[in-house]
Each structure stands twice: as structure tokens, then as C-alpha cells.
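Look over both lines before class:
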Amino acid sequence: MSQTLDSILDDASSNMKKAISHLETELSRIRAGKANPQILDGINVDYYGSPTPLNQVANVTTPDARTISLQPWEKNMLGAIEKAIIASNIGLNPQNDGIIIRLYLPPLTEERRKEIAKRVFNEGEHAKVAVRNIRRDGMEAIKKLQKDGLSEDIAKSGETKLQTATDKFIALVDVHTKEKEKEIMTV
């Protein structure tokens, strides 16, 4: 019985770590005024009929703090890359000179910074909801074990450990969102 309890706690902790890593990924995609190639993660280009990640059809570099440069491996991919960037709706206009595609990041206005900070807050809330859902599932599994014969003391101990892990991961979400918000609001 206690091995089952340990596996419930381990699974919950593992899933909470996944929720945090998902939050980190989402926050890295939010641009904070500085050019970051991760903004383009998740954009797929039509490469001879199959959707292919952008970084697999072009060299992505940041020559300066406000520019992302894309040099396709094949020249005929310029149009497809441009279409994919426009369709991705990331708010950047590709500049195609026939050899390289450049994305210029405009300086952020105060209003835009606040809008992005709200998005960061929303991502943090989604992560907190995910962590709480994992806690709820773990608590239900512990209660089911208790009905199947697990002693009340061991069950309460397991619930306490699960709540402690939840509190730790919720605090971690707050740390990540505060850091990103500070990065965005810094002029």
C-alpha cells in the first residue's frame, strides 16, 4: 500500500515539474523587447508538402538586440518562410531582401508592456491551475487507497506531502512570472 502512495506522490511531483517546464517554454516565447530566436519556436514551414519547424529550414540568428535574421538553407524557401511567419500571428512583419529574411522588433510602448505582462500573468494562472488539478487527482487517488485499506495516518501524511509539493510548485510559478514581468517592464 505505501508503495502505491509513494508512486502517487512521485507521479504528482513529476507532473507538476512538467507543468513548470511548460510554463518556462511559454514564457520564453513571449517577447520582452529583445530579439530572441525562441519567439519563432512552434512556427512550422511548408517544406515540400510537410510541416517542418522553422529552425530546421533556416539558420536563425540575432545580429543585434532588435533584429532576428533568417537565412534559409534553400533560396526557394524564402516565400514559404515568409508566409509561415505572417500566418503565425506573432506580430512581426518579415522583410525579405531575396537572400535573408529579417524581423525587426519595434520598441515596446508602455501600453504594449502592460498587455504582455497580462499575458505573462495569464500563463502563470494556467500553470497554477494545472498544478492544482494534479494535486486534486493525487488527493482523490489517496482517498481511494484509504477506502481500500490504507491507514488514516499514512493517508493524512501523504496528503500533507502532496500539499507541500503543491505549495512549492505554486511558489515557483510566482517566481517565474515575477521575473518575466520584471524583464518586460524594464525599459
In short: The chain has two domains: 2-29+109-185, 37-104.
